[in-house]
Structure formats: C-alpha cells, structure tokens
Amino acid sequence: MKFIHFLQFALPFAAVFLMAACGSNSLRTGESPLEQPVLEISEGGGFTGMFLVYRIDRHGNLEKWSSRAGKLDTLLWKGKIPADTVRNWVKDLKNTGALEWTYQKPGNMSETVIYWQDEKRFMWTWTPSVGKKILPVAFYRWYRRVRTFLDATTR
Q1: Are 106 and 45 in contact (CB under 8 A)?
Q2: Looking at residue 71, what is its pLDDT?
C-alpha cells in the first residue's frame, strides 16, 4: 500500500523530469525552425547535455542551434547556402553506401547525422573518439567535409 502512495506521489514528478531531460524541439528561442530539414548534423552530450545542431533544408536554408536538455533551444546562426551544395551532399552521402546500413551507438558525447528522404529517416550516431576507426572511410570523410564547411560558414 505504501508503494502505491509512493507511485502516486513520485510518478508526476518523474514524468516532468523526463520531459525536461529529454528536451523538445518545440522549446526554441529565436526564429521558427525550418519546415522540413533534409540533413541534421549534431554533436554534443556529456555532463552539460549541450548539443550543437545544424539543420539544412533542400533549398539551402541553414540553421545552427544550441540545444540543452530541459532548456530552450537557441538559434545561433541562420543563413543560406547554395541549393546545389545540399544536392551534392545528399548525392555524395548516398554514394558512400550509408543508406544501406545504420550505426547507432552513441556515447557520453556523440556525433549524429540524420538524413530525411521523403518520409523515411536515416540516422547514424557514434562516439567522436572512435568515429574514424569504426565508420566506413567514405562516410567518415563525407561527414568531416560537410562538418568543416558548416563550422566555417556559421562562424
């Protein structure tokens, strides 16, 4: 009986804690997010739970967000890159063979690539310290090239 009273008391608090800890894309400051991203590239985690997130749509609209579990997402940068660049990234991603496999082994810190093709979502996530060792070479090179471009563009 005491256990049931405990659950009645603890369950609402646990639910609120989990919702806050998981974060939400609807908690944003700044301008509204892209309607439908094609690519999302992120890194982060660790003790702070902070993530740096790039979202790119097929028209070349690019957003850089700071996201922290349970906190408002903050828009850090918004701009446009050539749509041809995005199309080439998608073509090159497909040419790596990545759509034929998945890798989802996040660690305390993680790097993640999400690609949307129509209604289908492809996701790869890994621990940065082992990415170069465990990911296929073509995919890892693609990721580093895209990530370097995004970092330089949004400074």
Answers
A1: yes
A2: 84
Whether 18 is in a domain gets the answer no
Angle between helices 137-153 and 83-95 (to 10 degrees): 160
- pLDDT tens sequence across 4-29: 444 344 433 333 333 334 433 444 45
**Within a domain: 106:** yes
Predicted TM-score (pTM) of the model is: 0.77
Sign of the torsion angle spanned by Cα atoms 141, 144, 150, 152 = negative
Q: Which of 78, 81, 39 is nearest to 60 (CA)?
A: 81
Looking up residue 109, the CATH number of its domain turns out to be 3.30.1560.10
Q: CA 155 to CA 146: how far, in whole Å?
A: 15
- Positive or negative torsion for Cα 125, 52, 142, 114: positive
| DSSP letter, residue 149 | H
- Look at residue 1 and tell me if it is in a domain: no
Domain that holds residue 48: 24-153
Q: What is the pLDDT of residues 100-139, one digit of tens each?
A: 999 999 999 999 999 999 889 999 999 999 999 999 999 9
Based on the structure, what is the number of domains in the chain? 1
